[in-house]
Protein 1
Amino acid sequence: MFAKPVPGRTTADAEGEVVVLLIGMRVNHFWAVHQWGLVMLSMFRMLAELGKDPSRGLLGKVMLTASPRTYYVVQYWESKEKLYAYAHSPEMLHHRIWALLNRKEREGALKGHVGIWHEAYVVPEGSYEAVYGDMPAFGLAAAHGQVPLEKRGRYAKDRSARAGEAKVAEEAR
């Protein structure tokens, strides 16, 4: 059940651009469980839906809390196209929940009891770094795989230069 740490320093085996979505909620009024409970339950249901169909593009996730009021999920996606396809697909739960929340907001039914937010990042190769010391695969490494740090270069400047060289070689083709 619990992952054993991988000894030494490792890094994520990510190549190319990395797509990261931070999505969460803030409980503005604890007593309004009927409002924020819907949002929290919906997130768990969407994650379960995505977990049943890996072809949708969710590679990994980390559930976190920033405070007793703020909860969020860091999601790693295969591509921005798959992230957007999931978000806009009428057959998927996200589309239906978003429509419901928009309707409730227009009707004034949300009343500011729960805040919702997301941030999406498409990070080009060479612009991200992941180093883990004596850790099981976590975050980006859990989503893309974990390799010994030396495979990518011992120092950050080496790993960054390697990414730049790969991009130049690809453009030359």
Protein 2
Amino acid sequence: MTCYDRRDLGLLLLRLGTGGVLAAHGAQKLFGWFGGGGIAGTGQFMESVGYRPGRASATAAGLAETGGGLLLALGLATPAAGASAAGAMAGAAAVHAPNGFFAQNGGYEYAATLGLTSAGLAVTGPGRLSLDHALGHAVDRGWMVPAAFATVAAATAVVVGTRNRRLRRQREGEQEVLFEEDLME
């Protein structure tokens, strides 16, 4: 008989809460559930904030959030699940970063919290109340943590970097307002 401790229960609660929130956000993007825009609406939004092509970006973000969230909640393939969710949240944080930290000002606080919690779960592991534990940690090996983070970090750097370069080029082409018309009259 296995006795579960506070750590196992705490990890279960963190996984269920974080995974559930991520999965719901991903379902908004993929299926339009919970008031979301679905692929079409989210794709338009992604285009407007510099992630192109929009539909592909919406699909990738939706899959990372939904898949990563569900896997985190189940405690299955925890390194890959946590890393993919953290990568999606890094992409979201990049959009909100110009607004500062706090969410009430449109900042990246929320995305950072979900991303860091997901990353922490990937590193810590799912605990004994998980499918990873039940399956003998077949998809939760120690080497998988750095491999998952390296892969996701490289992909995230390319995607966010491409977006940032695109936005910078777009701003360079814009003319600053030199005179206010009201002042000229």
